[in-house]
């Protein structure tokens, strides 16, 4: 395979990742704006608010950290809370590991930074498709960079324009709709259906657990039920 052909495959994968991530940005952008508004409202400077989106790059953790900052929680508690909330990313990593183990450490480092909820949703479905051309990590890169760019821009919009966005608009509901749209097409067999139902029920029952532990409990229950049902 010639160099021109390889470059064409890489470019096509990257652009496909960009294209498939675009619809999801409709739910991500308002969420990023709301974070920018809340971060500056909690006393963070414009620079610190933007830096949190660049360094942490995890919406749910950022929202929780801003709330804890508002409550004056100790730093160690904020670190532990952020760690617990982001434990789900370890599950994402385990899911895509079989497809990325051949990559160099530099590629793995870059993709691990971009491995967040909305990127994982499209990437894992792409990886599951047959006929691997060996360059699907470029699709991962395209989807991840697209999402990252939207998150940074929407955070900046929330920081500098947030005062003009009424708090009672409730734009955060768009993120829930986005996740529903991502999850439903992936439920295509009995194990995934049982996993989704059990995780949903657990999330509702455990919603009052502190530090968002209900989310981790729901994820673990969903995984266990899915594995159990596959053996039946």
Summarize the structure.
The protein is mainly α and 232 residues long.
How would you characterize this protein structure?
The structure is a single chain. With 232 residues, this protein is mainly α. It has 2 domains: 3-165, no CATH class; 187-232. The chain is 76% helix and 0% strand. The chain has 12 helices and no strands. The protein has helices at residues 3-21, 25-41, 46-55, 59-71, 75-85, 88-100, 105-114, 117-127, 137-161, 173-186, 190-205, 213-230. Helix 2 (25-41) packs antiparallel against helix 10, helix 6 (88-100) packs parallel to helix 8 (117-127) and helix 8 packs parallel to helix 10. The mean pLDDT is 84.
Topology:
Elements: H1 3-21, H2 25-41, H3 46-55, H4 59-71, H5 75-85, H6 88-100, H7 105-114, H8 117-127, H9 137-161, H10 173-186, H11 190-205, H12 213-230
- How many DSSP helices? 12
Label the overall shape: globular
Gap between N and C termini: 44 Å
- Mean pLDDT over the full residue set: 84
Please tell me the total number of domains: 2
Radius of gyration: 19 Å
Number of strands: 0
The main pleated sheet reads as: none
Q: Give start-end ranges of low-pLDDT stretches.
A: none
Structural class: mainly alpha
Order of helices and strands: HHHHHHHHHHHH
Strand content: under 5%
Percent helix: over 70%
